[in-house]
Amino acid sequence: MSHNKRVELSRRSVIKGGLLLGTVAAIGLMPIKLLRAEETVKENAEPKTKKQIGFSYDEAKCIKCENCVRICQETYKWETDAPWRKLLRNEKGDALSMSCNHCADPACAKVCPVNAYTKRESDGVVIQDSSKCVGCGYCLYACPYHAPHIQKKSGAVSKCHFCYKLQDSGSGPMCVGVCPTQALTMGDMKELSQKGNLNYKGLPNPKITNPSMIAIPK
Amino acid sequence: MGHWGWLIAIYLFLGGLGAGAYLTSFAAEKGFLGKKTNLNQVGYYVSAPIVAFGALLLITDLGQGLKKPWLIINMFLNFSSVMTWGIYILTAFIFVAFIKAFFVWKKRQAPDVLSYIGAILALATAAYTGMLLAVIEGVPFWNSYLMPVVFVVSALSTGLSLTSLLAHFFEKQHQVHEERVSQVHLWLVSMEILSITAFFALIYSGSQGAVAKLSANLLLTESLALPFWLLLILAGLVGPLVFYVQQSRCQKKAPLAMKEQNLSENADMPAGVNQGASAKSQNALLLCDGAVMVGGLTLRCLIVFAALPVWNGLLS
Ligand code: SF4
Ligand code: SF4
User: How many CB atoms within 10 Å of residue A181?
Assistant: First the structure.
């Protein structure tokens, strides 16, 4: 009798445990769906700053000379395993020249504890001040595009700043200036976003940070 | 991609552990862990030093901040950064827990509001360790609202274990064997199993995206499967669960046995047997507490190591 009872008890508790597990799993699944819905509503093409400039990459025009990468490195002397700009390529022959995308919702700026990142109101450029950076590495996880890197020597993060000093003095960024075929150009996102987006060959969902860059596949 | 490794994982673990230890002693002081308890002090003593040591690990993991420590003060600046929140929460908690420990040490009654503020900060500390990861959309595996839940439950469980262990060794004068403690721990371990299950269910439901599943695969079947199943699930959760279930069963029978023992003429023999048995279960209890903590540390390490970026940096 007592033996029987115990078996029954444990069976009952197994069923109970299973039910509980199921409920918890269901609870786990429910609200995220709601959150998702909210997210799509929140999705914004509207710029957050007075103006937002961005890059444009036209794959068909790119001859993969890597001038853009080289001039950037020569000018700003970043360590080669902590690049500001990269020419991504795959075996199929596809390519993309990419740096920081000066996102409309920069995840880097949100997480950086020391406020090393600022987004300029005048043109939406995201500038990171290496002299403030403590090197916690938080922004490296936050940025979906692997744009910020820690420079080994200084222990501080740096990344592309759209050559903002050159731009302030009236000329354009180095990479754009040196591109022989005008595959890499820049412009106002109001116009660029009419022509394309950054939903490109495996890149992350642009909704995460609203990058200010478009890539036109060939 | 990021460079977080052992130091950050241990930091997250210690944050939870210290917070949990405080909450254990707080619960004991308020009478939630049985009428007679020896858990109402040690947790208070160790909580601030543990969290402070964790924070020190975070600082040694910094890059430029380590060479130019004056920059660290700026970590209070960005109110939209969870790391900044954490710096505030940890600082406040270390401060309050330290004062509380001082009162306990002086055997004086601390103001009630101090203890309560400490408890709230302890909860915040534990939750923060999860939030730090949960807000990162760039790592889909972390980016789940269940992450802080898992971390808080684990913090409570490891804190209770640490406090029990320390009380066993340092509060020798009054050893008490409260069944309530085992019951609470049974409940905590069950909650942890449930929340981890829900966490993985959420990921495999697909709502976190394909990369989160890849991270989860690392833990369940791939390179991190061994520590996951052996250290976290088996040693850290299922083992303790089985033990606490058994304990609460034995203890239900115990009052009866005691009565019988009192009635018996030949009191020496059963008492001796009983002592042997209780020493054995005492050892098992200590082992269990150790295993819970190993599980907690393993959990933090695995979560940090399984982080895969939402984009692998390659063109597809
Ligand atoms: S690409 Fe990365 S670093 Fe650049 S603004 Fe966007 S989130 Fe920040
Ligand atoms: S690594 Fe530097 S720039 Fe990045 S979040 Fe930390 S302090 Fe800010």
Answer: 12
Report the number of distinct structural domains present in chain A.
2
CATH of the domain at A66: 3.30.70.20
* pLDDT for position A194: 93
Regarding whether A62 and A37 lie in a shared domain, the answer is no
Q: How far apart are CA A44 and CA A46, in angstroms?
A: 5
Q: Please report the domains of chain B, with CATH numbers, ordered by start residue.
A: 6-305 (1.20.1630.10)
- Residue A203 structure tokens: 């890149």
What are the chain A neighbours of B195 within 8 Å (beta carbons)?
Answer: 24
Ramachandran angles phi, psi of A187, nearest 5°:
-175, -175
CA gap A64, A93 in Å, rounded: 10
B316 vs A185 pLDDT, higher one: A185
- Residues A78, A159: Cα–Cα separation, whole Å: 9
- pTM, entire model: 0.87
A151 and A115 together in one domain: yes
A3-to-A6, A9, A10, B54, B249 alpha-carbon distances in Å: 5, 10, 11, 50, 14
A103 interfaces chain B, CB cutoff of 8 Å: no
Specify whether A14 is located in the same domain as A59.
no
pLDDT beyond 80 at B244: yes
Q: Which of A77-86, B111-120, B227-236, B264-273 is the least confident region?
A: B264-273
Nearest-atom number in ligand 1 for the CA of A160 is: 4
Contacts of A166 (CB under 8 A, 6+ apart): A172, A173, A174
pLDDT for res B220: 96
- Most ligand 1 atoms within 8 A of CB, residue of A84, A119, A126, A157 to mutate: A126
Q: Verify whether the Cβ–Cβ distance B135 to A111 is below 8 Å.
A: yes
Supply the mean pLDDT for chain B. Answer: 89
Does the residue A36 lie in any domain?
yes
Q: Which residues of A, range 128-167, sit inside 8 Å of B by Cβ?
A: 130, 132-138, 140-146, 150, 154-157
User: A52 alpha carbon to ligand 1 midpoint, in Å?
Assistant: 14
A119 C-beta closer than 6 A to ligand 1? no
Measured from the Cβ of residue B266, the count of other Cβ atoms closer than 10 Å reads 8
Comparing C-alpha atoms, which of B295, B177, B237, B137 is closest to residue A208? B137
| A32 and A95 inside one domain | no
For residue B66, the chain A residue with the least C-alpha distance is: A134
Residue A198 domain-assigned (yes or no): yes
| List of residues 6+ apart from A74 with CB closer than 8 A | none
A24 and B CB contact within 8 Å: yes
Residue A56 pLDDT exceeds 50: yes
